Amino acid sequence: MNLNAALHQIQKDIIFKTLSADFFFHPLYMRAFSMLHELTRGEQREYQYRRLEHLLRYAHQAIPYWSELIGKDLIRGNTFDIKNFERLPILTSEALITHNADLIVRNIKRYEFRTWTSSGSTGIPKKITGNKVYCQKMAASEEYFVNFLGGDFRTYGYMTPNFHLKDIVTLIPKPLSVEALQKWLRDKNISTAQGPLNRLLLLAEDIEAGKIQFKPKFVVSGSEFLTLENKKYLERVFQCPVYNKYGCTEAGVLGLECPLRGGFHITPVNCYVEIVDDNAHPVSGGAQGKVVVTCFNNRLMPLIRYDIGDTGRWIDGECACGLNTPRLFFEGRKLDYVKFTDGRKFSALGIMRGIDNKFANIIAKQQIIQESLSKIVLKFIPGREYKPIHEKLIRDFIYAKFRGFPEIFVEVVVVSSLDNLKNGKHVVFESHVKESVA
To answer: In the β-sheet with 429-431, what is the strand arrangement from edge to edge?
Structure first.
């Protein structure tokens, strides 16, 4: 090994150990975070395999649930075998709820910890336990992306009550008045913002009405499906780019929409992401499958091969934006599929994306409800260019999408509003068809 190679290996070891440490020192961690993204894909994968091996050894020793499932062949010796790892059963949402206590470290009361709950938009809410270091590392992922997009994390406002992040990030409080919010934005010098789509839309409406003055460098939308119409509206009002964030409450930030809109860049630092088939085997060649995540940093409740309820596919090739990370195309939630009498399924988000592209400015907000195997209903709030003829055109467009599938009746309904969940999230697809019939 020559001198340059030896120095590079030392640099890699420092990066790996810094990112794997059980403590958080911000300047050092952020430097290592950035440097890992500069390594080759092969070196990034080497880092992930080392994190996986370390995590499995720890989980086998400290977590009751994983002590039963992680076999000796997976943690014996010094060579990590990814094929053995891929034989581990998938951790489902149902298992996360049923075995919640056994998924937490033994003697949890010895640790300082926090608990938070998912919104329940994909089923039953799930309780997550973690410590401050885990939350700090989650926030560091967002900080990296904010820096990459040209923002300052100190003036990056979160429009969501993430109480487990309350002492790490700048939270935009739910205002009592637009005057209070205007003063807060000015006093905190907020220059970029992130939040659930519903809160961003409310802020945009206040800006458009002249009630609030706010011109951010960019805005990040999360938690909900961002339609093309909503993206165009937000970019017009905010007068800046609007990006989509990819992640979930259980696993934190997984990635960010490419600045060139080329899918989601998945960071390799905090998680190992797989796309698997129904038999839990990784797919290849850009095939669609379930998104499964292993989280490295939550030592109090490590999630290993956790099915986050999404479907997607990998995007091949290098990206022109400059981020040297894998890219994922989000196909939709596992529950977001229209089902047919012969057992086949069609992505509800695929329908909505098509409607977005063909009927831009016609639809402001939409929702698909599958009432039965023989009927779906598309409800939509009309956009500024809507005309009554568009109802038939939209219905014909959906029928064309379903060509070759069993017959299904499509009803298109214009509404003045659409119901949200209690947390404000908009439900884009709702199915009344039981899973067992699909």
So the answer is: 409-414, 375-382, 363-372, 429-431
Q: Name which of 244, 241, 223 is nearest 232 in CA terms.
A: 241
Separation between Cα atoms, residue 277 and residue 80, nearest integer Å: 23
- At 346-358, the pLDDT tens digits run 888 778 878 887 8
C-alpha dist (Å) from residue 119 to 281, 423, 424: 29, 7, 10
142 Cβ neighbours under 8 A, 6+ residues apart: 153, 156, 169, 194, 245, 253
Q: Residue 94 and residue 191: Cα distance in Å, rounded?
A: 40
Question: Residue for token digits 């990784």?
Answer: 282
Here the tokens at position 343 are: 């057992």
* CA pair distance 351, 369, nearest whole angstrom: 12
Q: Which of 298, 309, 301 is nearest to 333 (CA)?
A: 309
Arithmetic mean of pLDDT, 249-260? 84
pTM over 0.85: no
If you write DSSP's letter for every residue of 378-389 in order, what string do you get?
Answer: EEEEE-TT--TH
**pLDDT digits over 188-241, tens only?**
999 999 988 888 988 999 999 999 999 999 999 887 777 777 888 899 999 999
Let me know how long the chain is: 438
If DSSP codes are grouped into helix, strand and coil, which group holds residue 163?
A: helix
- 28 — phi, psi (to 5°)? -65, -40
